[in-house]
Here is the input.
Amino acid sequence: MIFGSRERIELKTPDQVCVMRRAGLVVASALEAVRAAARPGMTTADLDAVAARVIAEAGATPSFLGYEGYPATICVSVSEEVIHGIPGGRVLEVGDVVSVDCGAIVDGWHGDSATSLVLGPDGALDVETTAPGDGVDAADLDLVRATRAGMWAGIAALAGGRRLGDVGTAVEAAVELAGDLSGVEYGIVEDYVGHGIGTAMHQPPDVVNFRTSDRGPRLRPGMCLAVEPMVTRGSGATRVLQDDWTVVTEDGSRAAHWEHTVALLDDGISVLTAVDGGREGLAPFGVEPVVLDV
Here is the structure.
C-alpha cells in the first residue's frame, strides 16, 4: 500500500473532467445493461458480452481488456468472490451476490465504476424493497445495502472533508452503523483500495476504506478519485485464486463491491459515473452535486 506517500497527483482541468464524464456515462450505461440482462442460468461470460457491446457501440474502449493481461471487458465476482472475477463459464443462480466492475476510455480518459446485485428468480432485485424468500437471503440484501452506504458516505466526505483520510473514516463509520442496524459485524477488505484516475485507470493517491492515522493529502479541486469499498459478511481477509486475478474471501463469506468515479471541482463534487451526477445517493448527506453537461 502506498497510501500516505506524496506521489504526484494528476489534477484535471474542467474540460478534462468533462471528457471523463463522457467515459463515466459509458460505464454507467454498460453496468445498467448488465444489471438489466442478468438472469439465473446465464454465465458470467454472457454478462461480459453485454458490457462489451455497449462500450463498443458508444465508440469507447474497455479499460480492463488487456490491462496487465486481463482477458475480459468487465470483472464479474460472484458471492464469495470479492473482485477481479474473470468472466467465464460460471452459471449464475438465484440468491447469488453478483459484483460487476467496469471501466471505459474516451479520448484517453478513464471512467471506473462497480455495482453489486442480488439475483432473484427473474433477475436483479431492488435491495431497498425486496423481502427475503425464494432462495434470497436477507443478510445478502443487507450486505449490498451496507456496502453501497459506505461508498456514498465516502463520496460525501469528499464534499465536506479536508483530507483524503476523511473518506476512509466515513466509509468505515457507515459500514459499522449498517452492521449495528442489521445486528452483524461486517468485514472491510483492506488489501484492496480505491485510487486516483484520469489518463490512467489507476493513479496516486490510494483511497482507503477504513480509518487510518495517516490523514492523507489535502483535498483539492482537479482531483479525480475512485471510491470503492469492498465489504464481506466475514473477516475481510482475502486470498487470490490460481488464475492470479480472482480475489475471494478467506473464510468463504459473501462479499459486495460498489464504486464511483468522483471529480472535485471549484464549486463542489460531481459523481462522473452516476447518471444523475450522484444526486440520489448524496441526498441523505445534504450534498448537492454538480451535474456536468457533456
